[in-house]
Design goal:
two-stranded antiparallel ribbon, 1% strand, globular
Length: 389
Amino acid sequence: MLARPWHNGAVRHPALHPPSPWIQGPRYDLLFFGGALALGLLAVLGVLVLGLPPAIALWFWIVGFDGPHMAAAYSRTYLDRDMWRTRRPLLLGVLVAFATGPAFLALNALTRSQAPFALYLGLMAIYGYHHIVRQHWGFCALYASRGAGDPAARGREARIDKLVLHAGCWIPYVHFLASHPSCRAALGLGAPLRPETWFFRALGVLFAGLLVVYLVRARARVFGVKDAYLLGTVAFHGGAYFLVARFEPVFPGAKGPDQEFMLLSVMVALFHATQYVAIVWAHNARRYGAADDARIHGLARVVSGSPARYAAWVLGFSVVLYFPLACATGVYPVFHALAGRELGPFVSVNQVALAVFWGIALHHYWLDERIWKIGRDTGTRAALLGPSA
């Protein structure tokens, strides 16, 4: 169970007991938040160096982490009776996300073309990356909030941190989109032109300069946990899209972006999903920890009653619902069902499953953007930072 250092009955004097720089504690943060980064790197090591079949890494991520991180979000929203009482419009409103994919499939039929749904999938991939970067910024902001110092100085520092984190994650991604042959073909750019090489080099120089300047600036003051997290995250994404992308596709005979960029998806999303499952558990263990909260929070309190129950919920959701749906999309190797079954000349059963699959993702993005507002939600703030934060 999680330690509760902010609730021990003692009065803590801020001058004698400065705030901890950790969100949950050094062991927990290093194991789950830092370990999430290591897990992404291990996936690359396993596939590129040790010869692990990329399909094994893919399904390990989908079943063990991607599905569970969706279920983790539901554990503190749709399973929480109090959320239904206080935020019912949100819980019902974001369900419209499930209509977006089918709407683009309807455009397929109307235009007698596959282009609308292909556009939808491309936009969702970019939005998904935006969601990942937002989560990393959320962690940076949480770590920054643990620090002390002049509020005005912290505000200036936060603006610099946000710029470096976002630029540091997006520069490699833009380089990947503009330089990888499969991405260029999808965007209609053709083979790289000689003048474009200067653009690619400029992106690399800008990225490296960003890291150096931030590191020098951070070392001029106290180099803290937040700085280590930010630099590690930016370096990780630089390694993914500047270096690992060069090896894609790693799956023999890859067809479509889901197979062509399999290793990149596993690497980046393992980092993201592992952190998410861990931060939701940290939130739930505190928010639903009181013995009398079962009447208030319902199933959220039940599934968060112990690490075993929480693991059973997130893994059970993934195995029973998420895994079969992923198989039904037909875009992943080894496990693919319903291939070749058409609902019309421009809509297949696999596409309908893929629309639902991405509908879950989009629903997660919209929901997630609204439930972690620690400045507005005192319950979430207390669960992550303590009641006095």
